[in-house]
Structures are given as C-alpha cells and as structure tokens.
Amino acid sequence: MLPTFVIGLREGLEASLIVGIVAAFLIQRGERTALRWMWIGVLSGAALCAGAAIGLNAVGQSLPFRQREVLEGSLALLAVAGVTYMVVWMRRHAPELRRSLETQAEHALRRGSALALVGMAFLAVLREGVETAVFLLAAFQGSTDSAATGAGAILGIAVAIGLGYGLYRGGIRINLGRFFRATGFVLVLVAAGLVASAVHDLAEAGVVSALQGRAFDLTWLVAPGTIRASLLTGMLGFQPVPTIAEVGVWLLYAVPMGTYVLWPGIARRSQPVESKVA
Amino acid sequence: MYTARRHVTHAFIAVMTLAAAACARGPAGGGTEVGVRLRDFDIELSRSSAPAGAVTLDVTNQGPSTHEVEIFAVPDGVDADHLKVTAGVADTGGLRPVDEVEDIAPSTNTSLSVTLAPGTYVLICNLPGHYQQGMHVTFVAGQSSGP
Which stretch of DSSP H or E encloses residue B143? Predict the structure, then answer.
C-alpha cells in the first residue's frame, strides 16, 4: 500500500500545491468571482483527466510519449510564470494597499491577471492529471492486490488534496503580504522546482540534451519510495539524482528571485496611501 | 447551475476529442505482445525479439520495489548493457528514447504500446541503483514480415 501511497501523494501534490497557492492568493486579493471560476476549472480539469485516462485505457492506447513530456514541460513553465507573477505582485503591493484606491487601469489589469491565475490552476491539474489518472487506473485494474494498491493510491491523492487545502486555509489566514518574506521565499522555491521539472520533462522528450550529466546524488534526502521524497519532489521538485541542467536552472531562478524577495529595501510601490500612483 | 453544466459539457466534449486524437496518434494497440517481468533487480522478457512494427509490452512488476521501464533505441557501436553509471543512474545520453512508463508499483501490471523500427533496443529501469544491479535487457526488432 505504501508504494502507491507515495506515488499518489507526489502526483497529487504537484497539482494541489499550485491550486492551494492560487486560491489563497485570489482570496487575499478579494477576487471571489475568480475563485469560483477556479474551482470550476479544477473540477473540470480533473474530470477531463479521468475521462482521458478511461478513454485511452478502453482503446488500449497510451499518450504519445514525446508530446506528453513536451506538454508537461511547457505547462510547468507556464506555472513558473504564474508563481513569479504572484511573488512580484506581493512584493510590490503590501497589505496596506486598499483595493478602493486602485485606478481603473490597475483594476482591469488585476481582473486579467486573476483569470490568468485561474487558467494556471486548471493547467496545473491537467499537467500531471492524465498520468495520475492512468496510474490510478492501473492500481485498481492491473493489480494482483487491487484493494490495498488502489486504497493506497486514493489515500495518497487524498492526503495531497488535504495538504493543498490546508495550505489554502493557512494562506488566507496568514496574510500573504505581511509575511511576504517567508511566503515569498517558499513560492520562489516552488517555482524553482517547477523550472527544474520543466527541464526534466523536456530532457525526457529529447528537446533538451545539453548538460545531462548527473550533478550530485540526493538519494540520501530524496530516497525513492519514501514519504519524504514524495513531499520534497511533489512540492519542491527535488529529484533523487538531478542533472547539471536541472541544478543549473534551479539556481538561475532561485538565486535572483530569492534575493529579490529577501533583500530589504528594494523599491516597493506600497508604502502607505500617499504613494498611490494615478 | 447553468455555467457549471456548460463547463462540464465542454469538458466532456474535450475528453472525447482528446481520446479520439490519442487514437489517431498512438500505435495500434495490438501487434506482437511481449511480456516484461520486473523484479528486484532484473528485467525478464518473454521473448528477446519480435517483428518490427507494433509491439505491446505487457509489464508486470513483481516487486517488492517500485520500478519503471524506459525503452531506448540503441545506435550501432553502443553497448547498452554497460552504460556509464553516475550516482547510481545510467547515462542514457547516447541512446534514443522511444517511450517509458514510470511509477509501476509492486504487484501491478501495466501495458505500453510502441512502434519499433528494425533495430536493437534496450529496456532499462533507471531508478537510482537499479541499472547497476541488473535492470536492463536488450531486445531486437527484426525485419517485419511483410508481403
């Protein structure tokens, strides 16, 4: 039961983490309409993946490998863009900023970006969703011990959804802006992991072929098959034996963005009311 | 709620389209069936060669560990059974990826359909430590028996 539990946990976390973050962010900005669209999108996405997996299974096909990996890599990069946007937005708009003081242009921009975030949550579900659904199907159908195997898989995904939900609830209480440095830094780590995952997927598709040597051995930290590995891989994108390319892009993203988040005194638009720009 | 129903309808249509598109793309489910048995730590095939073309791998993991199966085409001159191993992971840079299925839990069975041109292939489980403990096996797709 543990083997399928850790797989379900990891796969589930990769989507539920993004959804939880987007949900908390939207609520903090008071974008309740966008939030409702997000839930609709997430449920539709899950249904789509389940349907695709069932459909594929019925006709004895699998998703074409190269296209699947390219798609997953591209969706990961889109997620990076979305998380980066959230980090930058939080950096520039402290909690002191009141919505009523925004100009019309800013308001429209926020609406547009809210919809983009909704789209991102939907795509996050799609990105790993079909593979996860296929994995679930195999656990139930293709197992000699389908009760335990299937139960483990469902439990893993359920825990992942629970963690994502907990993140959302915690996020709306924490006031993302006030504790920006801490939450912003975590978001930077998540995004850096997504960049590394994108490179990982594109390398599997053969799109990226440079720097594929192994950088170092992280199996002491990310031992395949353990719950800790599921958490670290699902949330932060850590691989057991990352390639030089993966480590390189991780650093390329994490170092500048981490500095941006943690450095005190970088120009902030948000000081109290008088800084409001027309 | 009207909008929710509209979305679910769209999702349903998208699913059917996706399934249809996948049908058009992938190799015909069928062709020669090759049994692949995974264990700690080896891979055993029910046959070491098959006619080129559609091949369906019927993969069973007898465990107790979780495994994966990656298929690569092996160019001439490369010895896929003695790849360089770094930090427990085999260097597959000189091979051409064909397909893979990851996260095969113990006591589960899954299937992978591929289309193989004539040539030599290797099936590997490249989780840390698995290759060097023996999880690799070569396979030959012969000239397809044609008209």
Answer: none
